[in-house]
Amino acid sequence: MAALLAAGAWSVPAQDAPAAPASAPLPAPAPAPADEDALRALAADPDWTVRRAAIARTANRTLIVAAALDDPDPFVREEAVGRIDDPDLLAAIALRDPARAVRLRALRALADDAHLAEVVLGDTSGELRAAALPLIRDEARLLELLRQVDDAGARDAILARIGSRPLVAGLAQSDPDRGLRLAATRHLDDQAALAAIARAPGDDELRLAAIRRLADQAVLAELAAGTDAPELREAAIRRVTDPALLARLATADPLPRVRWAAVDVLEDQAALAGIALREPDAGVRARAAARLDDQALLGRLAAADPAPEVRREAAARLADPAALRRIVDTDAAGAVRAAALAGLPVDPALVRRLAASDPEAEVRFVATARISDPATLARICRKDSSVAVRRAALQRLPPGPELTAIARDHADWTIRAAAADRLTDAAVLKAIAANDPDADVRRAAFVRLSQGDLAALARSAPQAAARVQAVQYLDQAESLQQLAEAGDPAVRAAARARLARLTGQPESDDPRLERVRDLLADPALRAGSAPLALESRVWFDERRYVGSEAPGTGSPPKGKVLLENVSIAIRAGDEVRFRKLYRGNKLRRAEVFAPGMVKAGGYFVKLNRAEIDDVEIAEALLRPLGGDAALRASRSGDKAVRAAAQRLADAWLTESAGREPRTEGDGEGEDDDE
C-alpha cells in the first residue's frame, strides 16, 4: 500500500455492508475493558480506528449511544449500533443515519414486528422497506401495513409474505380498496377465486390480472372463445393449451387481432401453413409465416405473397442463400430486402454496394452493419442521410484516424459525441474538450481525461465555457482551491461550487434540470393544452472504501464514492409522459483514490455525476405526437429536439427494435457489486 500511495493512487475493497468484512483494518490496541476512564478518553480520539476500538470494548451505554448518534465516522457509528439493544433508538437510527451500512446494521438488530413496521412506514426511499419486510412474521401486522403503504412495490412485497392463501383470496374478491384487490389478484393462486374474478363483468383490469394467473383450461377456453373485450380474450388465448381450440380461433374468429393472438401461440405447423396461405389479413399471415419451419413454403411466401410484411417475415426465416439473394436483388420493399440481406453470408462487394446506393435506409443499415473497411464506414458515417445508418457505421469503426477525424469535425454533434466517447488518445481528447463548440461533445471528452489534464484545461482552454465545464469533473483539492481564487470569475464560481458539492453541500440551481425545463418549453413537444411539468429528485448512494495504513499517519486511508441519482418524471396533467432514473457511473469493488483529492469528514471523495440524456427525453415526448410534430421539431431551435426528430425519421428502426449492431463490449457489466 505504501508503494501505491507513493505512486499517487490506491485501490481498496468496498466496505459497505452491515458488518465490516475481514479486509477492514484491525481495531487499534486499547486498554482492558475494565478501564472505563481510559476508554472514555479514547472514544474521543481523533483517529477513527481508536474510537471504534474503544466503543467495541466499553460497557458505558451513554458512550455507546453518543457514538451511534453523533460520531462523524460511519465505521464508528456502525460499531456502536451493533452494541445497542433499544428498539426505539435502533428504529430511529435505521430511518435517519446518512450511511447505508449503519442504517442496515440498525435494521437487522431489530427483533420485533412493531418497530420493523415503523421502519417500513417511515422509509421514503424504499431501500429499508425491501430489507425490513422479510423480517416481519406476524400476518396481522403485514395486513395492517398492506393498508397503509402507498406504492405498488411495497404492496407486492407484503402480499408475497402473507402465507394465508384464503386471506389473499378474500382481499382479491371483496376488499373495498380497488388497488388492493388488484394487487391481491396478481398474487392469487386459488383457481376458483381467479375464475370468479375473470368472469365478473365491470372491471377489465381486474379481470385481466385474474386471467393472467388462471390455469383452469375450461375457464380459459370459455373466455378465449367468448364475446368479451379483445384484450381479455387475447390474454386467455395466451394461456390456452388445447391445439384444436387454438387452431379454430386462429382460422375462424371474426376478429383479426384475436386470430393473430391464437397464431402467436399455435404450434401446429400444418395449421400455420394453411393460415399463411389463406388468411385474408396480412398481419395474421405475417405472424403465421414468422412461426413456420417449412423452407419450401417460406420460399413461396417470401417470393410471392402480395403483402410486404408477410414476405419480410418469411425471408427472415428462409435459409436458402440463392433465394435470399434473389429477394435482395428484386423485391420492391426495402424491409423485405433488409430481412433477406440479414440472412445471407457476408458478400463484401454486395454490402458495400447496398450501403452506398440502396434507396431504403433499412437496407443500408443492415448492409453497413456487415462492413468492416474503415474508409467505407467513415464515408457512410459522414454522408448517409439516415442518422441510424450513420450511427451503425460509427459503431463499426475501429479506433484509428477515421474515428478520430469524425470525433473532431463531423457535422452532427451526436455523432461527434459518440465518437469522442470511444477515443483513448489524451491529446485528441484534450483538443476536443478545449475546442468543440458543443458542450455535450466536450463532456464526452472531459470524462475520459485525467485530473491533471482537467486542471490544465480549466486554466487555459480557449473557450470560457470549456474552462468552466472542466471544473465540473475535477476531484483534486489543490487544483480546485487554486481555481477558486482564479482571475476568471466564472471559473472561480465553478470551482467553489464543485468544492461545496464534494463536501456535501447541496447544489442550489442544477443546470441539468434547468436544461430539461427549457426543453419542455419547446412548442414541438407539447400536445393539447396541458403544459409539460418536470418532477425531479437528486440523491446520492454512498460507498465507503478503506485501505491499509497510510505511511506516517497511524490510520488507514479512507475514500468514499458518491453515486449521484437523478429521477426525472414529466407529466402533462395527470398523464406521465416520461419517467427515468439517471445514475452516475457504477460503483466498483475497488476504486482508485489519489492523494490530494478533496477530503470531507476524513474521506477522500469522488463524485460520480449522473448525466441526463436530453435527446432521449425529447424523443420520448415527441414519439406519440405524430408527423406534424416531428416536422415542427426538425425546425426547432433546440438541438436536442432536432436530434430527436432526426432519430424518429427512421420509423423502420422503431419497428425492428433490437436489430441495431453492437460493438465489442456492449452489454458487458461493470465490475460493481450492486
SSE topology:
Elements: H1 2-7, E1 10-13, H2 36-42, H3 48-57, H4 61-70, H5 74-81, H6 87-96, H7 100-109, H8 113-122, H9 127-132, H10 139-146, H11 152-161, H12 165-174, H13 178-185, H14 191-199, H15 204-211, H16 217-224, H17 230-237, H18 243-252, H19 256-265, H20 269-278, H21 282-289, H22 295-304, H23 308-317, H24 321-330, H25 334-343, H26 348-357, H27 361-368, H28 374-383, H29 387-396, H30 401-409, H31 413-420, H32 426-435, H33 439-446, H34 451-460, H35 464-471, H36 477-483, H37 489-502, H38 511-520, E2 532-546, E3 558-572, E4 575-583, E5 590-593, E6 599-600, E7 603-608, H39 614-622, H40 627-634, H41 639-648, H42 651-655
Parallel strand pairs: 3-7
Antiparallel strand pairs: 1-5, 2-3, 3-4, 6-7
Helix pairs in contact: 3-5, 4-5, 5-7, 6-7, 6-8, 10-11, 12-13, 14-15, 15-17, 16-17, 17-19, 18-19, 19-21, 20-21, 21-23, 22-23, 23-25, 24-25, 25-27, 26-27, 27-29, 28-29, 30-31, 31-33, 32-33, 33-35, 34-35, 35-37, 36-37, 39-41, 40-41
A few lines on this structure:
The chain contains 42 helices and 7 strands.
